[in-house]
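We now fix the convention by which a protein and its fold are recorded. Think of the row as the fold of the chain written in a discrete alphabet. Here is one such record, which you should read through line by line.
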Amino acid sequence: MRTFKKFQLFILFIGLTTFNACVEKDDFNTPISTDVAFTPGANDIVMDINAVIGEFTQQGGIFTFEPLPNGNSRYMTGYVISSDEGGNFFEEIVLQNAPSNPTAGIVVQIDVNPLYTLYEFGRKVYIKLDGLTVAEDNGVLQIGVRSGNEIDKIPAPLRNEHIIRDSEVATITPLELSVSDFSNDKENLFIRLTDVQFNRDEVLGTRPLTFAGEPTDQFDGERTLETCPGNTAIVLSTSTFSDFKSLPLPANRGSIDGILTRDFFDSFYTLVINSPEDINFTNDERCDPTILNCGIATTEGSNVLFDDDFETQVPFQLVSGNGWTNYIQEGTEGFEAYTAGGTNASLGVSVRVGAFGSGDASTISWLITPAIDLDANPGATLSFQSSNSFSDSSELELLFSNDWDGNPANIATATWGLVPAAYIVQDSDFFGTWFDSGIVDLSCGSGTVHFAFRYTGNDADNNFNGTYEIDNIKIRN
């Protein structure tokens, strides 16, 4: 009897040993070497992410780190700022070069999921660069293995060879930025936007939008964040595979932490969060702009309150006269008259504004009409035409103010609201076509009003330095 029990225990031991041998270590949360500091060899080279980016620039594009002689290795250090625990990242980790005040970041593609159990937020890692390739994918710098002129993910069997955990887990301090600070060298950094909110059309009303759970969301849900004040827009991008895709967007305002990156088509900057816990919207007082939205009228009157086709303006000079206020708030570019033929022809003499070629880090320009008394003209309408030369995420808005006193020094401090019914050419519109605004109804407005075209852009980034053209402005009753 005793011999039989010993035999059973022996069989059980053999079975457990065999079972454990068949299970891959990646199935468990944490490797045994969790708290062991990694020390490169005396003759190994340790590089900062900035140095890797510098090497990429010097090489002129995609390149592969070749092995060093004598068995030595190159390593890149970085701190993990992404987490796939919420499903918003997939088979990649994003690294930045320092826990606080970072200056460089990069994406590492790995054919392993999940990764947060191995490389948690704040974990310092070493990337063995030998045999890996650095490339730009959709405008974002990434590391993987070469596949022709592109990169693939580091295969799972090579993960332990190329990605080494250090014992350090740092506290990551978000880098506070404003939207105007966005630039290519800020990509792949963990940033904080303060005093922002989601666009009113997405969170107010009977059915607020979710992060990425709408029927129209295919791969990512793109939602509009706005700064307070100013309502400058930035896109929050959320994967439709994220665990929180069906949660409603918060309607308050506050701060949000996330990773600055580019959209799939490299058309504009986006922010990606690790989880909804990165959103701290505790202020219930929204900063929505004043709206003058009476819709579109079917006809316009014959009584001219203000007209300008700009034919009397001097081409390539700033617009002046006829009651216009042409004000440059930031930068060097104002609204100028121009004439041109070809595909993107002007309408005789038209007006254009843009940051392209200016060298301006920020361009904000205004073209403001003389005062219009809406009380004395209850059936007033406004119309114009607009075109663009690849507006490239720069922005042209039609605004109005009831309290601007006519002094250019007070433009920025006056209260300006939106006139959303007017159609203004979009970046997706063909650049050779002039688009009608529609006959914008002003009948729900009151008091003395100035209307303004405001351009916002910059020449520090090619994605924000586009050009707009306007012509045939009519205010009638």
Remarks:
- Residues 2-22 form the longest helix (21 residues).
- The chain has three domains: 44-169, 175-283, 304-476.
- Helices lie at 2-22, 49-59, 159-162, 200-203.
- Residues 1-33 have pLDDT under 50 and may be disordered.
